[in-house]
Predict the structure.
Amino acid sequence: MYLIAFGILFGVCCLQWAADLPFWAAWGWMPAAASLVVIVFCRYERMARLLRGVSWIPCLVAAFILGYTWSAWRADVRMKDALDPVLEGRDLLLTGVIASLPEERGNGVRFVFDVEHVDAAKYEGIPGYAGVPRQVLLSWYGGRKGSRDEPLPLPAVQPGERWQLPVRLLRPHGAMAPGVFDYEAWLLEWGLRATGYVRGNGVLVAAETSGWMNRVHRLRAYIRQKFEAALPDAPYRGILVALAVGDQGAISAEQSEILRRTGVLHLVAISGSHITLVALAIGGLCMLVWRRLPWLSRRCPARLAGAVIGLVAAGIYALLAGLCIPVQRALVMLAVSVLCMIARRETSSRNVLSLALLAVLAMDPWAPMAAGFWLSFGAVAVILLTLNGRVKPGQGWQPAVRVQLAITLAMVPIMVALFQGFSLASPFGNAFAIPMVEFAITPLALLAMIVPAGWLLELAHRLTAWMMAALQWLSGFPLALYEHPLPPPWLLATATVATLLLILPRGTPGRLAALAVLSGFFLWHPERPKIGDFRATVLDVGQGLAVHVQTAHHDLLYDSGPFFGDTSDAGERVVIPYLRAVGVGRLDAALISHDDSDHAGGLESVRAHVKVDEVFAGDETVESETPLGPDAWNARDARLVPVRGTPCIAGLHWRWDDVNFTVLAPARLSGKRRANDESCVLRVNTAGGASLLLTGDLGQADETELVRQYGSALKSTAVLAGHHGSRSSSSLAFVEATYPEIVVFSSGYHNQYGHPHPHVLARWARTSARPYRTDSDGTVLLETEGGRMKAGTWRGIRPRYWHGR
């Protein structure tokens, strides 16, 4: 059974890592069915005897084909449910139902919307056209009244309500950079084939609709409101809500960081242990009552009745939790165990885990794209590997300690692959956090869901506060969290095998070699440019700018990206994960071209996570034009971003590893003009003649001054087009003076300014420069080799079949 599960998993993963779907994907169910027949045939007893011990080979091959073809067919069906490009950014009137628990985000609320009817003709004159997916992810912002410090109330929406909403939709799009969360993959996994925002006021059509999942979401909303009313100002209320209904939106970024650094973040996400706890508690209580009622015991054994009722209780809790992957895995394993009990058949724990894996992959072929899939199944597999097959399993607390240490070691490669680091404090944090959460805080939170007693929540919150205080102290140790760059796949695979060898019983061959492999894993570091060369990475930060310039031994950040709404920024979401992935824990300098928040919005987050030796910046505070509202990349809110540092003035020059860095503008900081006019222009060049010109938001008037002052000396191998490709920049004289081979535009997907402007694209095209755009290409990579420069894109290096679709 485990070989079949492994083969199907490998087939599913190969499909999900593919750049394109196979041409036959629409008929994928046919080879999938044929492969299933082959598997059943190979498992037949007479055929197994006929093949004489090699039946596993055709069985494994058929399992791989089954996983691949099943995933291809499911992916083809889902990809066809897409937003037509003609409707992107257009005004549409949608009628549908709120199909999820609304999630508050800053000055807005986000929810899944089941589309029932589309009226595009009212706005755009497209009669009878409806190329809109069945489910979309919408954000509805409350807006602001008068001063920006007076936000309007959030829209009041509840699960199951039917609304008519004026919206604008976009196809799935997210930041694409090394180490950065793949937002497009997340949307695909959840079946959300478009995102958008509500424009203006909606109309409530019906306050309540039918559907059992709508009732589940309404119950989840009621429980959340009950907790919020009982603990209105409690700082850790979000943790209790997360344990009760799986909504982690109210957990602050500071609390999440403490939990991450101490390795206990999994405890506040409803997982298999929580589901098992509910099943054991309810099932055990049922057994006690059942045994005291002889007329029931005669009809059904108390043990079986307890198991069935425990499974039902676990299923109800799983629905309240939102049926995430760890919950699915635990629920399927419980169901298999109960079914075996009913059928009076014994099965190994290995087979139970394999059946759970097959069930999850059958329901959700995109599950391997989620971190919870690997952490959940990996942890259970390690537990089984650690406890099963030992002559002396240990007594008392020894097995628990052995399991915790084994999980910590075995999860290291997975944690590095998913999060570029792991917690060294995890064994200590889990040692006291697991008992508190599993046996005190979670039971109290669950009991408070059904018992109208406020003191239960108050007690649970007090225990949570004590736990968080201890975890905060533990997270303060410098070595609490070990960060490691993202290794190549082959190194991750060998390190995973090495950790599995190390947790096997003593005497297992290859343990010494496993230590050598792990040593190489920890010593590995990404290759840096050679002396005299540099690498520039123009990060995909939406409507903003952030560029990482790296030499053999030094790192510089040019701008830090925009704000994303009221609670996040590009520094936190993009720059920091990217720097972790490439192994940069310290910046020699950060140069902020000017104080607009689309360039300086992420600086404080960067400085909070990475040591920055020196900051070069203007000394003015100006109002931002960065859009901040409708979605993660396009919103509207004026901000002031004061940046203080060494004044960035023309004439500054330094040399790192035989690479020259020269500031060409501004000549002075007048303090009388907008910040765009005083953008800090940086030129990076090698002795071999390869050069890069970074211009910030420089306008045409200042470009003319640069051309007058430097003339043909401005010629560069690559140029970052000024002001995201606005027509207020990239004058014809400047374009002809720089005459690059490569031009890069850093702009947001379908941004409201229309950047880069078609006229600007035409000007740069006259130089025959190769254009690269972060909105369509993702992160752009530039690297010099001697006097030449090569360019690439992250979407080109790591293509997936769902990108841009």
Summary: The two ends are 36 Å apart (CA to CA). The first strand starts at residue 91 and ends at 98. Residues 123-129, 619-640 have pLDDT under 50 and may be disordered. The CA atoms of residues 252 and 661 lie 40 Å apart.
